[in-house]
Amino acid sequence: MSGTLGTSSPPLQTPRPEAAAEVPPSAASAPSGITRATLLKDLRLEWRSKDAINSMLFFSLLVVVVFSFSFDPSAEESRQIAGGLVWVAFLFAAVVALNQTWARELRNQVLDAYRVSPAPANSLFLAKVIGNFIFVAVLETLMTPLFIIFYRLRAIGPAWQLLLVAALGTWALVVNGTFFAAMSIRTRSREIMLPLLLFPISIPAILAMVQATAAILTGEYSARFWIVLLGTYDLVFTTGCLLLFETVLNAE
Amino acid sequence: MKSLYSILVIITGLLLIYAMSAALMPEFHLGPLTFQGAPTEQTMGSVQRIFYYHVPSAWTAFLLFFINLGASVYYLIKRCQTADILALVTAEVGVVFCTIVLVTGPIWARPVWGIWWTWDMRLTSTLVLWLIYVSYLFLRKFSTSGQTPVLAASLAILGALCVPFVYFSIWFFRTQHPQPVMGGGGSIDPRMLHVLLVNWLAFSCFAFLVCWSRFRLEKLQRELDAAHAMRSLMDEPAHPRSAR
User: Fold this and answer.
1) Rounded CA gap, B59 and B64, in Å?
2) In chain A, which stretches have pLDDT less than 70?
3) How far apart are alpha carbons A194 and B133 in whole angstroms?
4) Interface probe with A: pick from B73, B140, B142, B174, most Cβ of A within 10 Å
5) Chain A residues touching residue B171 (CB < 8 angstroms)
6) In total, how many domains does chain A have?
7) Does A222 map to a domain?
């Protein structure tokens, strides 16, 4: 191969498979580096355009207002169901965020480039999940005061547990949602496919989130079981999604 | 194969006749023979007989979904088309049986409890199971990727992982907010158990036959699609009349 060039440029060599193992991975190509790089890219893009966060915020606000008409906030019963309402609003808003997760990667064939690169698929998946988690967490932080004001909520039980429920619950929604969003890329009616796949499998998590929130707000019983269930659910499904994501990415 | 299929059809037919008669009548005659069927239940009377359709349908659905999980896992490991068709077929027939459970449940509940539906543990978990597998069928139908089997197999595995969580969460939800339980618990009369098991066997044979037919149908359909694809690749006219 070097003979055919006939110039003083260094000979081109096909990379040997062993060569890849010999070169120590630099910080940028280590899996955590890839995750960080992809995550920062997504956050930077989002910060500059603010597409997802704006649409999510406004959509959440609309949902809260419609709920206020359907379930009168001044009634005592509303305080009982407020836990459920909050989570339904966040669930719908999370779907808005999740639907556009992979949209950016499809334009300009970024996903194809990722597939042919030696980067592990799980790094991309984790970056997307963490990115979505941050978006939905920001949304929840902004919307919760509004909910508290509209529904005059106060936590009779231990309020710090609400943070734990929010974190675990959001992670459950986002990890499954990102996985199913990747599955729905090549389907007809892509936008409706994601909720169709996500909602049935999230039912245990949604039940746990709603019941835990109701338990903490009303202070009537302990939310411990639900928090443990959420934690186990997160563990099992994060592992499952991580194991299956490479297969799904290559199948698209 | 065809003769085996015909034999199975006859056996299943006979089993179903026996099972259904046993479920509906305390004593029945088939020709010269007299058989003992299921005795009439004390509190609920004849309405209770729907139990012999409700419970075996549920067990058959669970069996089919379990086979679906096995076929999906096998497909992901070996990428064998037979496993993929088996997964599709068992999901479809399983959803049908699950629908029967969800329909017979309210029919039973209405005369006994006075309500059509209750969010009790059994009905709610069956509903969620039904939702998960219907979403699986939606993915199969709507996916335009060439690798739909891989996606569907992944979904089936995640769905199966979800099932224990469904049962656990709804069980705890119901212990916190108790409601009337459908179907009751407690011991069962041995004659009733016998009829129940016979019905389950009959339903399983029927499910097997339906799966087999659907399997053959799907296999033929895929071969046809592959042949069409090959033809268009070879640039041959699909129909003699369309050749100019």
Assistant:
1) 9
2) 1-29, 73-76, 78-79, 252
3) 15
4) B142
5) none
6) 1
7) yes
Cα–Cα distance for residue pair A8/A153, rounded to 1 Å: 76
- Checking if the pLDDT of B240 tops 70, the result is no
At A99 the pLDDT is 86
- Residue A146 within a domain: yes
pLDDT tens digits, B21-64: 888 887 777 777 777 777 777 777 777 788 888 999 999 999 99
Q: Are A187 and B135 an interchain contact pair (Cβ–Cβ within 8 Å)? A: no
Domain of A119 in residue numbering reads as 33-41+49-251
Angle between helices B51-78 and B121-142 (to 10 degrees): 40
* CA atoms of A164 and B159, how far apart (whole Å): 25
pLDDT value at residue A103: 82
- Count of other CB atoms within 10 angstroms of residue A49: 11
**Average pLDDT of span B226-240:** 79
Residues of chain A positioned with their CB less than 8 A from the CB of B145: 185-187, 251-252
Buried b (16+ CB within 10 A) or exposed e, A119-157: bebbbbbbbbbbbbbbbbebbbeebeeebeebbebeeeb
User: Are the CB atoms for B57 and B104 separated by under 8 Å?
Assistant: yes
- Per CB-CB distance under 8 Å, the chain B contacts of A241 are 158
Torsion sign, CA atoms A26, A29, A34, A37: positive
Q: Is residue A7 part of a domain?
A: no
Which chain B residue's Cα is nearest to A240? B158
**A203, A225, A244 member nearest B172 (Cβ):** A225
The answer to whether the CB atoms of A211 and B144 lie below 8 A apart is: no
Q: Does A106 touch chain B (CB under 8 A)?
A: no
Does A21 reside within a domain? no
Separation between Cα atoms, residue B196 and residue B61, nearest integer Å: 15
CA closest to A198 among chain B residues: B135
Contact residues, A window 187-246, toward B, CB-based 8 Å cutoff: 187-189, 193, 196-197, 199-201, 203-205, 207-208, 211, 221, 225-226, 229, 232-233, 236-237, 240-241, 244
Helical H runs in A72-159?
Answer: 76-99, 103-106, 110-116, 121-151
**pTM, entire model:** 0.85
CA dist., res. B55 & res. B105, Å (int): 9
